[in-house]
Design brief:
Elements lengths: L7 E3 L1 H14 L4 H22 L6 E6 L3 H15 L3 E6 L6 H9 L3 E3 L4 H10 L2 E5 L13 H10 L3 E5 L23 E5 L9 H6 L2 E5 L13 E4 L2 H7 L14 E5 L6 H12 L5 E5 L3 H7 L4 E3 L11 E4 L7 H11 L5 E3 L2 H8 L1 H8 L5 E3 L3 H8 L7 H12 L2 E4 L4 E4 L5 E4 L11 H19 L4 H23 L7 H21 L2
Parallel strand pairs: 2-3, 2-5, 3-4, 5-6, 6-7, 7-8, 9-18, 10-11, 10-13, 11-12, 13-14, 14-15, 15-16
Antiparallel strand pairs: 1-9, 16-17, 17-18
Length: 511
């Protein structure tokens, strides 16, 4: 597996191994100097925005006892050498002595926290605060005096740059033990490779813009199960291949949907819209809302009959607004009996949680199944809330149901039963709107049908495609939102073609 630092998020245990290998292979102190250089460059770019440049700016370093504190001190020395006033506030009972000496030589100053008011005044007056309190090994909420200084930084106009990870965020899960005792960064300089806690949970909201810098870690032999992969435009473009000259509507893939009901016909229209805007060439529909579907999408073959009689498809999507009656239950059982990918969404997840026959039919499938719960549906499936570790939660359900799980949220986590995990982070907050998930389910079904038509889709492939679908869905939402428009699910459907075109355009630039 070829990994890119900008998309591969590694857990702490794996990062420690890679760092140790790099330190053994390089002269002493090389990794820290590389990190310090990257931090100083990033700080300089922020200072240009907030203070007009480095020279004459005011920088405060919050320095803990570990290597992150050393990174910050050496970075501060570089900034002081360029004319910044740099004050380092030491928040622990020890610090990196060589880094502190370098800062002094460059004209920077060191301060303790015996006078916490004076330290807080430094933070409040800073143009830029550099968080070097804790590293990826930090556990739990910030302690005093760091917690007070973090609160001051959060409540003033100072910009905040975190070193590798905002202090108080769990690197593996993104959990924040105390929302009042954590750094909130405008930007995080990520050293070597991403960490899952920067992408998911409360940590994603605390990390600001992510700037991943290469410090020389070798990712070549990292196992897939040790990586959380962030989907970006490059990865999504690879899943959005264009039709070939000899393709027809069938070779591009046929996706079937059994969604919506007489009570919720809109769910059928939205989900089929997502499918029609996808990469499959043909869409079938089976369900009570067939008349509304064909009115909205006249090129869709629409019938009120059972899924088993609807015709061959390379993927079925069942659930969105379909209800939980006997017909809806039979739709799942019919689709589960087919040897093709299956997407279960919304009402289908309720039946999966409550109906033992449905559960058995899904768990024993030889073909791949994708479940798409939001947090409330996760509660029904798992019997408990998602909790602070969304990656672990998605993996739990994936293994319980022998299915790929797409756990919706501000960051969408996709887990395969194999243990491989992907994350999509493109969605703006405005996409938290009724029907958005219906669109995603249809678009995902289209992608799975297309790839099943051109080659077998196993669980890991389905998980990667599900994350790519979530990314495209998020880009469509961002396109619809533009500079701040409120949107509805129909706007996401309308924006999907432009989102696909933009992402495909990335692939054509050679970037």
């Amino acid at each position: 597996m070829s990994l890119r630092p900008a998309t591969a998020a590694l857990r702490v245990e794996t990062v420690r191994v890679l760092e140790a290998r790099a330190m053994d292979a390089l002269p002493e102190g090389t990794l820290m100097q590389r990190a310090a250089s990257a931090i100083a460059v990033s700080a300089g770019s922020m200072l240009r925005d907030v203070a007009g440049g480095v020279s004459g700016s005011r920088v405060v370093l919050l320095v803990g006892s570990g290597d992150n504190g050393g990174d910050a001190l050496y970075a501060g020395a570089r900034l002081a050498g360029r004319g910044a006033r740099v004050d380092a506030v030491l928040v622990a009972d020890r610090h990196h002595e060589a880094g502190a000496a370098a800062l002094r030589r460059a004209g920077g100053r060191l301060h303790g926290t015996e006078d916490l008011v004076a330290a807080a005044e430094l933070v409040a007056a800073a143009d830029l605060v550099v968080d070097g309190i804790l590293g990826i090994g930090g556990q739990g909420a910030l302690r005093e005096p760091a917690a007070t200084l973090a609160a001051v930084a959060r409540e003033t106009d100072s910009s905040v740059l975190a070193v590798d990870l905002p202090s108080g965020v769990d690197a593996d899960s993104g959990a924040v033990a105390d929302a009042e005792r954590v750094i909130t960064a405008d930007r995080t300089v990520v050293l070597g490779t991403l960490k899952p806690g920067l992408l998911v949970g409360a940590g994603a909201a605390r990390s600001g813009d992510l700037e991943v810098v290469d410090i020389g870690l070798d990712l070549s032999d990292v196992a897939a199960q040790d990586v959380v992969v962030r989907i970006d435009d490059q990865a999504a473009a690879e899943a959005l291949d264009r039709p070939g000259a000899v393709d027809d509507k069938y070779t591009r893939g046929v996706v079937g949907l059994s969604t919506g009901s007489s009570r919720y016909p809109g769910a059928a229209v939205l989900s089929t819209g997502g499918a029609r805007r996808g990469v499959a060439g043909y869409v079938r529909f089976s369900g009570p809302a067939y008349q509304q579907v064909v009115a909205a999408w006249p090129d869709i073959v629409s019938t009120p009959g059972r899924v088993a009689l609807a015709g061959r498809s390379q993927c079925w999507v069942v659930g969105c607004g379909r209800g939980t009656d006997e017909e809806a239950r039979l739709a799942i059982l019919d689709a589960a009996a087919m040897m093709t990918p299956l997407v279960l969404d919304a009402d289908a997840l309720t039946l999966l949680a409550e109906d033992s026959e449905v559960r058995a039919a899904v768990v024993k499938r030889d073909a791949t199944t994708v479940l798409t719960p939001h947090d409330g549906e996760f509660l029904r499936l798992a019997g408990h809330e998602v909790g602070p570790d969304r990656v672990a939660a998605a993996l739990e359900i994936a293994r319980t149901f022998s299915s790929v799980v797409l756990l919706k949220g501000a960051s969408t986590v996709v887990a395969s039963p194999s243990g491989a995990v992907w994350v999509a982070v493109a969605a703006p907050a405005e996409m938290a709107t009724a029907g958005s998930g219906d669109v995603l389910a249809g678009f995902l079904g289209s992608m799975l049908a297309h790839h099943q038509a051109i080659g077998h889709v196993d669980d890991d492939a389905a998980a990667r495609l599900a994350a790519c679908a979530a990314h495209v869905h998020g880009v469509a939402g961002a396109t619809a939102v533009g500079s701040g428009r409120p949107i509805a699910a129909v706007d996401i459907v309308s924006a999907l073609p432009e989102a696909v075109a933009r992402i495909r355009g990335w692939a054509g630039t050679g970037s």
